[in-house]
Amino acid sequence: EGIVVKAGTDIPIAGAAVELTGIAPRTVEGSSSVGRGVISVSVQESASDGRVLSYRATTNTAGRFSIGNVLPGTEYQIVVVGFPDYLPGQYGQRMPAVPGHALAVTPGENVRDLRVELTPAGTIAGRVVDSRGQGIRNINVELRRPWYLEGWRLLVDWNELIGRVRGIGKSNRAGATRTNARGEFRFSGLAPAQYYVRTDLTSESTARPVNLHAGSTVDDVRIVMPDSNTHLVRGTVADVSGSLMTRAQVIVTPSEVSPLYVDVRIDAQPLLNGTFEVT
After folding, report:
1. 104-117: b or e for each residue (b if 16 or more CB lie within 10 Å)?
2. pLDDT of residue 204
């Protein structure tokens, strides 16, 4: 038995889903017999079949829950979900995303006065507009956590950069959605952290962080999409003596992207008499 409250307070949380999970314990059966000069002991141990034991409950209006008929075990975990207003929590957890404590239940024991604290979730919302301030519909919007590599702040996935070399990688994408007819977007159920909101055309050099606190709402994010006008880049490639080169590769990349791990690039057309052109 226990109670679920808002983190740092005694405010009860009603309607939260509580799950107690563990692995079926081993069972041991034995017998013994005594004869002249002989003591015979027979022990039969039945290993766990790997069954996952799961018990569920829902908190009442006072935030309290009760689970009965629990088999004895030493590695039980209690997980509580109060989505979307709260982040998932675990018994014994000191902060979000940090593992909690295992719970032991011995034969005949009644475990009472458990306390699970849930951290309020945050929200980030805003609009994507054009240069005239008009909302743009159906724009892909991503929520990212930044990470750093060789001094470069990167908002793209690790596997987007060097996954082709490593084969696998982890994502720092916290969410993705599309704008509605008014250009609006919204991300809910977020943990307190620093985020970046970006689109496919967002420049990393101009992206501004959103510092989201527990339970707070940031709803004034505004992303102005650049005009779709295209440009032409033309030039020549020569060696140190000034002679034009007929074989070279010319690549145009955004200045704010790490050149070592560039993922956005435009190849110029083949050189003709030392001249290249990017359309």
Report:
1. ebeeeeebeebebb
2. 66
102-106 average pLDDT score: 90
Give the contacts of 10 (CB within 8 A, at least 6 positions apart).
none
CA–CA separation, 145 and 125 (whole Å): 16
Locate 177 and state its tokens. 């959605």
DSSP annotation of 158 reads H
Can you say how many angstroms the Cα of residue 79 is from the centroid of all Cα atoms in its chain?
Answer: 18
- Cα(87)–Cα(91) distance, rounded to whole angstroms? 13
CB 64 within 8 A of CB 2: yes
Euclidean distance between CA atoms 68 and 110, whole angstroms: 9
Instruction: Classify strands 217-224 and 251-252 as parallel, antiparallel or unpaired.
Output: unpaired
pTM above 0.70, yes or no: no
Rounded Cα distance between 78 and 111, Å, is 12
β-sheet bridge partners, residue 22: 53
- 83: which residues sit within 8 A by CB, 6+ positions away? 121, 189
What tokens appear for 175 in the block?
């969410």
234 band by pLDDT with thresholds 50, 70 and 90: confident
Cα separation, 54 vs 65, in Å, equals 15
For 44, the 3-state DSSP assignment is strand
Of 11, 13, 166, 170, the closest CA to residue 83 belongs to 13
Determine the Cα–Cα distance for residues 201 and 267; give it in Å rounded to an integer: 18
